[in-house]
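@channel sequence for tomorrow's demo:
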Amino acid sequence: MSGSVAGAVPAGASRRIPEGFLLGTASAAHQVEGGLWNDWMRMERQDPWRIKDGSSAAAAIDHLHRYREDLEMLAGLGQNAQRFSIEWARVEPEPGRFDAAALRHYADVVATCRRLGMEPVVTLHHFTLPVWLADRGGLLDRAAPGLFARYAAVCAEFLGDAVRWWVTINEPNVLAAVAYSAGQWPPHRRSPVAAMRAQAALLRMHVAATRALRDVATRRGHRVMVSIAHHERPFRPLPGSAAARLAAPLPHYLFNRWFLRSCATGRLLPPVGGGQHLPGLAGSLDYLGVNFYTEERVRFDPRAYTTLFVSPQPDPSVPRSAAGWAIDPDAFRRVLTDLWREFHLPLLVTENGVADEDDELRPAYITDHLRAAMEAVREGADLRGYLYWTGFDNFEWLDGYAMRFGLIAVDRATLERRPKRSAAVYAEICRSRVIPPCTPPPGAEVSPPAPGGRARPRVRGSGRPRYPAGRTGSPDPG
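structure tokens (generated this afternoon):
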């Protein structure tokens, strides 16, 4: 029996990946670039205690200056797509003043991706805001949708037809929940009502940016694919608990479905809105970007006001990542098939990854989740690609550099890049377009690519994938 998670897609056979399917990685500007000044960087300087390891993204991994080498390394690992974000604060450091050097930088990032054979997937907003906008109310400023549309239009004009895949906003549900209800991120509000106002504001920003992107594309004679990156985290009530069954549907709907169903109907749905029509909302998604990490088992908790009275209740039978998140590839399959059946939009996995300090979990995680994705395709889902989070260990928000999701390690003292064993596993899948029935054991090595060349993983030994019990709970029987 394979060491894959119980309930996962069977690992007994290889799975072929369709031609044209995108395989790559994803990143965000604040987490990798360095040299930024935005609302998050201000928080990191003023309140360093908020970051668990006391670090900051001041330098991050210096991707701003090393992007060409970094992209060459990812292309050398066989990847044919790359998702990254444009930093609004870098492009528009003052209201209405757009920095030509910053725009040229991002144009060269796109051009480098194209030269290396990687499809660029470009995100316009990934959690951070320019300080000037944060100071006038941030997302809740009534002018925010128009300002975001102006910024989107400038980016679209500058990058032109080299970008076909756009993400307007990354995880609007997460931003509203963590920044406006839990109060952990800027602007540190702790109000479910404020979170619902933020959801509505982000919806309007998405509509405004979508219209701007399409207007530029139409005027210039090319077509674009526009979406959000939706974070799907299903809330499953604790078995046998009537209270959990009653409590879970509302937070599940608000977090996982309100935004998408509003886009599908063209209306600001209750309880955030009153069902009023929003021009341009219906049809604003050309595809659906899906970020998936885990499925949440929840219990009723009368003290959990900011999460609408549910709290996580870990299932001890399911392995867990270094972040404490359940690892269940079959939940990924269910997410993809459920989203496809409800919305009938092409799907692109814009993030999927695992926090794993020693790269013990990641090789099996990648193969198991890709196998689950191909099972969703077999069941009818129109899935266009899979972007692993992330290429390089980087600044993971409040966790600093402690949480390591990357295929490539980054030495914090020297910033030297070193591919991990999981990079070899993913590279072989990217090149062969075949998901193996089992994962290479510890001992796989990756030869760093020569400048402009392609890395060739060297895998030693044979064996079956396991999720080690020492860090993640009970593995499957061997």
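heads up for whoever presents: Confidence is low (pLDDT under 50) at residues 1-11, 440-478.
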